[in-house]
Design goal:
This protein has about 425 residues and is α/β, with parallel strands linked by helices. About 45% of the residues lie in helices and about 10% in strands. The longest helix is centred in the middle third of the chain and has 17 residues. The structure holds pyridoxal-5'-phosphate.
Length: about 425
Amino acid sequence: MWVRMRFDIAWSDLACGIRSVCLPWDPATLQQQICRHWSAPEEMLPCLSVRSGFDLLWAALGLAPGSEVLMSALTIPDMARIAEHHGLVAVPVDLDVEHMAPNLEVLQRAITPATRALLVAHLFGTRVPMEPIMKVARQHGLLVIEDCAQAFVGRDYEGHPDADAAMFSFGPIKTATALGGAVIRVRDPDVLRRMRARQATYPMQDRGAYLRRLVKYSTLKAASSRPLCDGILSLCRAAELDHDHMINGATRGFAGPHFFERIRRQPSGPLLVVLERRLRTFDPRQIAERAARGDFLVSRLPRGLKRPGGEAQENTHWVFPILVDQPRRVIASLGKAGFDATQGGSLRVIAPPADRPELDPRAVRDAAAKTVFLPLCPQMPIRSVRRMARVLWQLQGEPARRPAVARSPAVRGRLRRGRSPLVFQQGAAQG
Ligand SMILES: *Cc1c(COP(=O)(O)O)cnc(C)c1O
């Protein structure tokens, strides 16, 4: 079975983390080293998580209670919760699903005199073109915050230069994960100073807790290797356990009570060591490979098949969602063929404030009900990618056809010789 549960972290990173738990560190020095991996080190703040940084940001901004924050209507549920905790009103902005970008018309209609800020999430590996959004924001004097948790690609994108803040997550399911940690870019030095001062009053993340994380994800990484995974999945089936539910539960951070107490921690030395290592050794070619693999699957899909972000100009395919009318049937058929697709994800649709039902994000809600994530991962050989596409063709009642998209002669040649394009082989070697 090809599972979607793959963690983007090497055994050597995990070993480095486990080693560093036992050593003394100076977090301040490590923080500086982390900041130096970004183009504007003086604007960066390493945090325990994006949610921790987002919470710090609102505390530092001190907006008047009742201020409205427009948000991409699809995000992790904690983001709206954090804004609301600071007395703000979270207002969803429906997305144009084909581009996975805030719908500009809806955005303009949602603005009221109480609107102060706009949170734009770059989702699934797509990148929202920020310029038109910045224009609207400038007209109305809105703060712009970019949620780049799913959009880390290294120095190629550190947020729009004029955005007030950009947030990058290195949580367990993210690109270049450190099993936690985040880096927040904040343009206003006063706001950043206040965030830093507030974070300095927080208790330190418990090293034992980080060690448990390292051990837990080492176990999950081992369990997601193919032979072991097949065994575990059959055990789950035998015991009638829902493995999908378990995966989602296992990878959700800060679940359970005392949420705010738990996000309000300084990142520990060992976490910063791993985060610094991930940034230092990050290879953007890994992103190019992932994007190429995704584009290849796109070229093989049934022509009528729609995808969230299918029309997006930039897509590095952090995950690979498709839109289908009968998600369960599709998941079952893929499962039979050995592909662990899923409907589940960590994202939720934000409900509109009670007095503004017209802002219900219908497009995103419809799409969410039809979305299935395919288990495209770097380890998957090209023939399996093709086979996965064929299953989808069969579901549409058509035999798989040659792709309509013309490819470069070099790639065509390699495919003809029955070899996967080079990028995929490099990806597999990294495994
Ligand atoms: C993962 C994620 C977050 C939260 O990141 P943490 O560092 O885990 O707090 C926020 N927004 C989006 C869109 C995410 O995918």
